Amino acid sequence: MTVSAQQATPVTTLRIATRQSALALWQAEHVKARLEALYPDLTVELVKMVSRGDVLLDSPLAKIGGKGLFVKELEHALLEGRADIAVHSMKDVPMHFPEGLGLPVICEREDPRDAFVSNTYGSLDDLPHGAIVGTSSLRRQCQILARRPDLTINFLRGNVNTRLAKLDAGEYDAIILAAAGLIRLEFRDRIRHFLDTEVSLPAGGQGAVGIECRMADQAIIDLIKPLHHDETATCVLAERAMNRTLNGGCQVPIASFATLDGDTLHLRGLVGQPDASEILRTEQTVPASECEKAGIDAAEHLLAQGAGEILAALPHSVAANADTPDQQ
Ligand SMILES: NCc1[nH]cc(CCC(=O)O)c1CC(=O)O
């Protein structure tokens, strides 16, 4: 279909490609509801897909494919015309898009912080000496050990519901999850404490949802554009520019988090050893219009301190797997 033909044809039905995890479905339903509220005559359908990452969830192979495994299937559906948009957690979106696809919309961010969840203890600082904390994010592990070197970090995988079930089964004294996922799935009451960003700097894009589509589909882009949130997008672009400059899929253990104060953007970045033996930090303050430059400068400052050596020393399977994409 040519661009002019699409502009002449109003969109009557929109298909959203989505994974079938509870969080992915919530995000797709949320976008569907917002679009239906904006356009009462529009029919929005969910195209539910099983991503390779979901199939391989319990296999070590899932580690090798990293983030890409969870979005590739959805991107195929877009490229083959089986769906019109795909809704993603920005944290899990790879740095580069296949030819013809792009991500023109980033929605308003939910709480970006990490959350402390426990059935016994009120916060990280309340945990007794040697307590067991569940997470498989090296970013979280590194920052938790920096604050509490006595804790034992144990591997914890699966989606949000699985993780809570493992906590409830008594396998851990506490677990750390993104607040956003818990809030969206109505588990806010399980959060005992929000980790201050000074204690646990979030992953780039955490808490934000983005919409990917075919960039030639101007009518679709126009349709979804009202869901774009400029302030969130400015912050997420800075965070992603830092991660991209630190080199592609290798994002572990990397944190990047930007905030806006009027027209001033403040970006903080971190690269650390998983055991917290070394933690590099950077802070950049720039006009909001230079958000990408802030990300590049942050990455270069981290690289100048030795971030490249830390990241290169990580085993490949770990380095390729970012902030534990299976958690969705
Ligand atoms: N890495 C997995 C992932 N991707 C997005 C979220 C939910 C929060 C968000 O939207 O960033 C999670 C779960 C988690 O980190 O606990």
TrEMBL record:
Q: Hey, which pathway is this one from?
A: Porphyrin-containing compound metabolism; protoporphyrin-IX biosynthesis; coproporphyrinogen-III from 5-aminolevulinate: step 2/4
All residue ranges annotated as the Porphobilinogen deaminase N-terminal domain in the record:
14-221
Q: Which cofactor does it need?
A: dipyrromethane
Family matches, as Gene3D superfamilies: Periplasmic binding protein-like II, Porphobilinogen deaminase, C-terminal domain
Listed A to Z, the keywords are: Porphyrin biosynthesis, Transferase
All residue ranges annotated as the Porphobilinogen deaminase C-terminal domain in the record:
234-303
Q: What is its EC number?
A: 2.5.1.61
Q: What is the cofactor note?
A: Binds 1 dipyrromethane group covalently.
Modified residues annotated as S-(dipyrrolylmethanemethyl)cysteine in this record: 250
Name one molecular function that GO assigns to this entry.
hydroxymethylbilane synthase activity
Catalytic reactions of this protein: 4 porphobilinogen + H2O = hydroxymethylbilane + 4 NH4(+)
Q: Which GO terms describe its biological process?
A: protoporphyrinogen IX biosynthetic process
Q: Which Pfam families match?
A: Porphobil_deam (PF01379), Porphobil_deamC (PF03900)
Cellular component terms (Gene Ontology): cytoplasm
Q: Top EC class per UniProt?
A: transferase
Function comment: Tetrapolymerization of the monopyrrole PBG into the hydroxymethylbilane pre-uroporphyrinogen in several discrete steps.
Q: How does it assemble?
A: Monomer.
Similarity comment: family membership: Belongs to the HMBS family.
Name assigned to this protein: Porphobilinogen deaminase
The organism encoding this protein is Parendozoicomonas haliclonae
